[in-house]
């Protein structure tokens, strides 16, 4: 897994699968936020599979899809709420980690 630490509370990675959620748990993450829409690519694991395994391990999850063309105010607002609600540290993921990084940076900006 290619996990990049942004700060003590938040890290990002490319797409994960249900088996990798076990590694996420072992690394101490308390929450996962998926920023990738389901069915973006044919071989992509569905968020429901990630969420099911995370629930078995006691990891909280949120699905805040961000399309590759850009962030919406709604998505940033959802991320702000997730950051306020979810236990930390949090792992955000998308296809490459870029959208998860951008939305985190935007969510930290004064609204």
From TrEMBL:
GO terms for molecular function: hydrolase activity. It comes from the Bacteria. Residues 2-104 form the Beta-lactamase hydrolase-like protein phosphatase-like domain. NCBIfam families: TIGR01244 family sulfur transferase. This is Uncharacterized protein (TIGR01244 family).
């Amino acid at each position: 897994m290619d996990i990049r630490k942004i700060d003590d509370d938040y890290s990002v990675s490319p797409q994960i699968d249900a088996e990798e959620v076990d590694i996420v748990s072992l690394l101490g993450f308390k929450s996962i936020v998926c920023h990738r829409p389901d069915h973006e690519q044919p071989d992509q694991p569905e968020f429901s599979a990630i969420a099911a395994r995370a629930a078995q391990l006691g990891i909280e999850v949120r699905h805040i899809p961000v399309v590759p063309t850009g962030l919406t105010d709604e998505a940033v607002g959802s991320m702000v709420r997730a950051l306020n609600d979810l236990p930390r540290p949090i792992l955000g993921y998308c296809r490459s980690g870029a959208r998860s990084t951008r939305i985190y940076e935007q969510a930290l900006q004064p609204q």
